[in-house]
Design brief:
This protein has 380 residues and is mainly alpha-helical. It has helices spanning 16-20, 27-34, 77-82, 89-93, 115-118, 129-136, 157-171, 178-191, 193-197, 199-216, 226-243, 251-265, 271-274, 291-295, 304-316, 329-337, 339-353, 361-374; strands spanning 2-4, 49-52, 55-58, 96-100, 106-110. It has a three-stranded mixed β-sheet, with helices on both faces. A two-stranded antiparallel sheet has the order 2-3. The chain is globular, with a radius of gyration of 22 Å. The protein binds iron/sulfur cluster (2 copies). One iron/sulfur cluster (SF4) binds at residues 11-17, 94-95, 114-116.
Length: 380
Amino acid sequence: MLQIAHQRFTCQECGRCCRRFLVPVTPLEIEAIAKLPWPPGECPTRDFYCSIHGHAFFRHDAQNGDCVYLDEHSHCRMHAVFGAKCKALSCRAYPFEFLATFPGEVTAAARYDCPAVLANSGHHTEHYRSDLEEILQDSQLHLGKGFTAEELDGLTRESILVLCEFLRKSIFEPDIPVNALRELARRLERLGRPFVNDVETLKTVLPSMRDKALRETPPATPGRTWPERIRIRSKLLNCLRYDCQTGDFSWRTRLRQATLALKLFTGHGNPNDFDSRQPDSPFAKARIFDAKTWSTPVSPEVWDSLRRCLATRLESLQFFGRAYYGATFFKGLDELLEIADSALALARLNAAATHLGHLEPADGDYAVALIDHCHGKISN
Ligand code: SF4
Ligand code: SF4
């Protein structure tokens, strides 16, 4: 059974996914693509893939950074000549990510690093059911075996679904900060599996437990201690580095990136030096650890995409197990709800380069696209 997360998406044909990301291609696909009978003079290149750390990806043009099959109108040449079905699975499936969850169940969720998903514009994702079901039959798609007993943390399917649905609904209540929900999740973990698995009691007590967590959780002020600062800086750095992957893994590029990473890690440098698509502002100017940064109220519009992104992960269960480095349920949940801290820091970074002083929805969107792109990966 395929469960599709409630989102909206219609491709805007912007070509971002074919420019910005390294798109994987399997050995079987390489073989098939190499044999495509291009009309004379139309084949862009026969040298279409590169290997990085033992994995193959579509090669990017050295001049403009686009996938070698992308044309000047942001359309795929392979698609134009041979149709969608000849493309690699990664190209056909994007922006959807699949995860085998419980026996006989698979979820599909669209990624927020696609501008159309981020903007919540277009068809409801259910519109793509037949396409997604066809992709599910593709032999190149490795779904895994679903959650292991260890990943489930001793919880039943029903208790996980009840808890995730409660958190998903709470995410959309603007008066409930995400850190209070994180505290609620931590309290539930401490109460133990028998408590959480008692679904009827759980349903009854969740609202009052949430309100208590809300009253007792101080406002988030990450960065008060050095370990916290190191943790947040490492997360930001990972996001920036991952978003800037170009396929150029020469020692010269790696050395340059390592030097820039060290600078950012110590609170200096400029993310734009990593990649010209990143905010052009000295890292220090964002003041991500200023108490004012955390205490200034942010308008609900800024976090619209963040709330939707968290809700999608909760609905699709794509935040633990194979979707997050094999993490157990509670560990994955804690890491997911911690996203809000990194998102604020990244949004401040973007705001520092544009409209210093206040956050706009574009800053929240920048942060969410970057974080969702990097938060765990489902590897095929
Ligand atoms: S990034 Fe999204 S909107 Fe842009 S081309 Fe890719 S799928 Fe379409
Ligand atoms: S092969 Fe086509 S769809 Fe796939 S990344 Fe390249 S341009 Fe995009």
